[in-house]
Amino acid sequence: MNDPVPILSLKNVSRHFGSFRAVDGLSLEVGAGEIVGLLGPNGAGKTTTVKMLMGMIRQTSGDLSLFGMDCFSERSEVQKRVGFLPDEPNFQSHLRGIELLEFVGKVRGLSPEAITSHIDDVGDKLGLVDDLGEFASNYSKGMRKKLAFLMATVHKPDLLIMDEPTNGLDPVATRSFLELVHRCVSGGSGVLYSTHLLDQAEKVCHRCVVMNRGQLVAEGTVEELKKASGVDSLEEVFFAVTGVGERSDV
Amino acid sequence: MSERDGRKKGEVVIALIGLVWFRFRHMTGWLGKVYPSHREPTRPRHTKGSAFFLLMGSLFLIQGFFLTHQMIKAYAERSLSLRENAVALNDFRYSSLLSKSANWPGMTDEEIRNDVEALIRFSEFDREDIGLAPLTAGEVVRQYREAGLSGFVNYEAFSKGKVTLRDFEGGNRVRLSRLLGMIFLGLLVALLFMPMAIRQKNLAATSDHQEWLFSLPIKESELLAGTFLSSVIVRPLAYLILWPLLTNLLIASGEFVLVAAIMGIVLTLLISVAITGLEIFLDTWMRARAPAILLKNAQMIFSMLGLLAFYAVLAACFAGSSSFPWVNWLAQRFPGRLGGPVGEVMLSGMAGLTGVGVVAALFFGLGGCTLAGRFMKTGWLSGNSQHSANRGLGDKSLRGGSLLKFEGLLLLRDRTLAMQVILVPIMIVGYQVLINPAMVQSITAAGICALAYSCGTYASLMTAPQLLVSEARGVWMIYNLPVAVAAYFRRRETLWRSVSTGLAVILVVVMILVSGDFQVTEIWRYLMTLLGVWVMGRVVSGIVLGKPQMPDVASGEMPRLAPGRMYGAMFFAGIFGALLWQGMFWPLVSSLVVFWFLGVAIWQRREISFNYLMEPVEEEPPSWGVDDGLWSVVVFLVAQVIVTVIGSLSGGVSGGLILVSFVVGGLVAFGFARLRQRQKAIPLPDFPDDGDQVGGSRLALEILLAASLCLAAGIGWTLVLETGIFGGADGGPGSEWSPMGLILLAVVAAPILEELLFRGFMCRTMLGFWSKRNAILGSALIFAIVHPGTSFPPVFLLGIGTAVLYFRSRSVVPGMILHALYNLGIVGWALWS
């Protein structure tokens, strides 16, 4: 996992909303077979970064590329190799889970058998198979997350971009979910894992990038980060580098 | 205990006031500061809508005051002062008739007629003045012979006058006011039903501000009461709908003004209570207990009721030629009281309505409250987790699907949409038939085509925003698919446009069958109708979908669409509809081509703009495209038509008027083009740098060469037309043209304005998306197609010539010279021959 080929690369990327700088000069890379945690307090610019990577919004300046292609102008080409799990997946009101999955699979050119085996495998592990006949707009948050994960991984993507992936999942589902993510990575996929759950990031991520107010404030493996800040846990690192929520002497 | 209760009472009042205020602020979009500042870009969601309703309501009220005052005055003058006399005189005539009729058996018709006429003369009463039911001697004799005296001596026949507010006519101001009133009233009635047709706009929805409310330290029952109360009070639609009626009452009721005012307020509140109760029932009970499918159907039904009400009001208003159908309705329901003051008649009608209102409010209000109270105990915010009815895959196996299947499912399952697309046109036609049955028997091909075209285009217009609305929650998915966003939307638009065209086909066939009127010579019109629906569908959807913005992915809210774009699209669709109705063949063909180009061009632009769907603050960078030039041409044509129509009001269409409308149209279009340039603040696309530029004597030579070539083609074509193989030439400039006027138009105005527009702006902007060759051919085609149909070939050639010169000289002047030379030659030839 040393010096992996970067499949995701951000160079000096900024995104402003009027005078507000949501992302400000961010650079980062994700290589194949690597889970990179994107950490930061609320409003740090994580979701904006993810949206830019998905070609939903355009950067104000800088370069974003996935597999060497531009995220915005070559979005449809890029998306052939990317899976995306948004923080709050919502679905069209009039479709059942199974129909949405079928639709996504079809558009991606998968055979019905491939979709079925994906459901049998991943859907079963997440415990969603029984609910796939229901309208997706009636799903609970956790179920929506599971369905979105099924949809994001149906084509075995080379890069998985996830925004607060375990938000809304119960502990059992979280465990199977993390196993599935590890399986993807061992198959050679890269993962960008945006979260504010530090203990999870510490367990899952090979490398972490900490953002605050749109800027990158720390980067490295968890061990490197701890060493650099001279503290014992990622949580301490987080407080040290973001400078927020500093502990008062209780 | 009692002390605690006393303190609680004050708190309750404060809480209730707070809730009402909160709801008011939420409704009017003044809640901005409650949300964190980073949500600012998408914040002013409600403001535009609220402003729209306030404006609409105010217009409605003004219209109500204005019309009511005039109507009541006319009514009062005609009925109050004359009614008593009329009734007294009728009594007199009736009793005289009865006393005379004893002598009638055995008398001849002539003798009876003389008798009756003497009686009418004796009464010295002019029926025309008071508009009484006609009483002629001939009619009396006829009815007497047919059924004996009892057959016509029905007191009602005499006493039931024909003075109703229907007779009330007015000037243009009144008619415009009435038309506005009809539309506003219909919309408002429809909107009253809408809250129940919209998902997640309700008491129990788990939206952020409602959750915030429930986190306040207020007792559940107080919260329920407060929310209920605020829903009842802060419901502007109820007031807007009823207040014009109330103004009628207040003006008319004279001494009962206070009673009328109180009754109006009570009725407004009652309606509000009933609607709120219904809403709670739907939103709370159904969401929590009923299968999801039931809620969806109920929402569809309410959406349909709203539309039904809208069209019912419109149809009733048109039939009664009044925007106040209730006035007629009340007056007709109380014929015996027609002699009384109009205010009393209306008051008694209102009293009846209030009675119904009380029952409805009690039933729905109490029912809704009881249900809401019960569900508060079992979990108010249990929300929409109900899904057991459809749980499980069952025996549904994974079968091969396709995009078409996905799109078809969305279309079929979205009941509101299906209903709007398929049922609404049928409803519109149905209402017209109901109100005016003679229409069906006498329907012409023009009528069939206009109706089918309107319904088909309406369906396209409705599906366009629905396209985004149905995707709003899942739009992130599309961004994760390996397809271009615009291509995805275009596919769905094409599918739904096919549905619209299919609907038009069905309507044409059904109406032909019903009317039994099919003419082979009208086949072109039917074809134009279907082509029109197909072509305009793309234009209207392209216009409507311009610059939409999706809200935050997470929120799943609806995208914002500009109502102005809907009206704009309706206007442009109306142009083709008017031409279809008039049956103008060549203008139809030209506009079909122009609109087809426009549709393609608009969707070309959507290829770019859809990439910015998710941008909360930014729009796509400005660019020039084929659509810019086409818009200016459309403006050119529309402005010409408007000036010609206005000018011809005072007389016929003269040569001078055509000259004026051409110049005005050209200047307006030129102004429009300049305005676009200022708006976009970027230079026009560059000329292609292909070393093709020439100047000096070479250019002069080329102009002369092109002019002789075009002129030869033009005169040759004129000779061909004169042989009559194309059924004769167009009318051309008539005798009312003075040679000077013709030369001014053809040699001065046309070359300058058309070159500026077609080459200087249209051809140039086409370079934004098209190659030089396509820009030359495309601009020449549009240039030729908007000219009179039979002159197409030489004008097309001229268009190519001027466009080539434009690129070679990088100036519009050589083109102007060529254009002027050509026109001079043709006009000279025409005058000479």
Provide structural commentary:
The complex is a heterodimer of chains A (250) and B (833). Chain A is built from 9 helices and 10 strands. By secondary structure, chain A is an alpha/beta fold. In chain A, the strands form 2 sheets. A 6-stranded mixed beta sheet of chain A has the order 6-7-8-3-9-10, with helices on both faces. The radius of gyration of chain A is 18 Å and the shape is globular. The relative contact order of chain A is 0.17. The model of chain A has no long low-confidence stretch (mean pLDDT 85). Chain B folds into 4 domains: 68-166, no CATH class; 170-385, no CATH class; 404-621, no CATH class; 696-832, no CATH class. Chain B has helices at 2-27, 47-101, 109-122, 127-130, 137-147, 155-159, 172-193, 208-214, 220-233, 236-252, 257-289, 292-320, 325-333, 342-377, 403-413, 415-435, 438-441, 445-471, 475-479, 485-515, 523-544, 563-582, 585-609, 626-648, 655-680, 696-722, 739-766, 772-785, 792-809, 813-832. In chain B, helix 1 (2-27) crosses helix 9 (220-233), helix 7 packs antiparallel against helix 12 and helix 27 (739-766) runs antiparallel to helix 28. Chain B starts with a helix and ends with a helix. The model of chain B is unreliable at 30-46, 124-134, 150-168, 199-211, 379-401 and 728-735 (pLDDT under 50). The chains are: A alpha/beta (250), B mainly alpha (833). At the A-B interface, helix 2, strand 6, helix 3 and helix 4 of A face helix 15 and helix 19 of B.
